[in-house]
Design a protein that fits this description.
This is Lipoprotein. The chain is α/β, with parallel strands linked by helices. Helix content is about 35%, strand content about 20%. It has 6 helices and 8 strands, in the order H-H-E-E-H-E-E-H-E-E-H-E-H-E. The chain is globular, with a radius of gyration of 20 Å.
C-alpha cells in the first residue's frame, strides 16, 4: 500500500509538471533565433547559404534586428497564426542590404470571410484529390501537409473527414500556405505546401 501511494504521488507530481510546462509554453514569446530555426526545420532553408535580412515583418509592420526581440516579447507564441519567409530576390522590396531571407509573421486577427474562402478552397481540393472509396495504399501525391490543433494528420481520408466536418464557427485560425516545406520534416507532401487549422 505504501508503494502504491508513492506511485500516486509521483504521477501527480509529473502531471502537475506537465501542466505547468504547457502553461509556460502558452505564455512564452518567440525570440529571433527561434524564428530562424523555423526557417530551417519547417521550410528547409539553409542558413549558411541564406543570410537573414535585418528585418522582420509583423502584420505588415517592419521591425529591425535590434528591436525585434523586445517587440516579440509583447506577444505570446499562441498569438501568431503563421510564420513564413520569402527570398528577397524573388519579391520586389525596398530593402537594398546584402541579405536573402525575410521573416513574415501574422497574428490571428482573421476575418470570417477569409476563413470561409480558405475552408472552401481546402474542401474542394481534398474532394478533388481524395477518392470517396477508401484505399489503404493511397497517399495523395498532390495533397498538402495538414495540421489541426498542432496535430499532424497523415491519412488523406482523415484529412478529408476532418475538413468536411468543420464549420466556420469552429475555426479560430486557418491558413493555406503554398510555399514548399522541408521534405526531411514533412515527407513527400512537403512540396505541396501546408494547411494549418486551429479550432476554438
Amino acid at each position: 500500500m505504501k508503494n502504491f501511494n508513492s506511485i500516486i504521488i509521483i504521477l501527480t507530481f509529473l502531471s502537475c509538471g506537465t501542466q505547468r510546462k504547457n502553461i509556460d509554453s502558452n505564455k512564452s514569446s518567440y525570440k529571433k533565433n527561434e524564428i530562424k530555426e523555423i526557417a530551417e526545420w519547417k521550410y528547409g532553408y539553409n542558413l549558411v547559404e541564406n543570410n537573414f535580412c535585418d528585418l522582420y515583418i509583423i502584420d505588415g509592420v517592419p521591425y529591425d534586428n535590434e528591436n525585434i526581440d523586445s517587440t516579440l516579447a509583447t506577444f505570446k507564441k499562441s498569438d501568431f497564426g503563421t510564420i513564413t519567409f520569402f527570398k528577397k530576390n524573388e519579391q520586389n522590396t525596398w530593402i537594398h542590404k546584402p541579405c536573402d531571407l525575410i521573416a513574415v509573421l501574422r497574428l490571428k486577427n482573421q476575418k470570417d470571410i477569409e476563413k470561409k474562402e480558405i475552408l472552401i478552397k481546402t474542401k474542394n481540393l481534398l474532394k478533388e484529390k481524395v477518392p470517396d472509396l477508401s484505399n489503404r495504399d493511397y497517399k495523395c501525391s498532390e495533397c498538402p501537409v495538414f495540421i489541426i490543433d498542432q496535430k499532424l494528420i497523415w491519412s488523406p481520408y482523415e484529412k478529408k473527414k476532418i475538413i468536411d466536418g468543420l464549420k466556420l464557427s469552429d475555426i479560430e485560425f486557418i491558413s493555406f500556405i503554398k510555399q514548399k516545406l522541408n521534405q526531411e520534416t514533412y515527407g513527400f507532401a512537403a512540396k505541396n505546401g501546408i494547411i494549418e487549422i486551429e479550432t476554438k
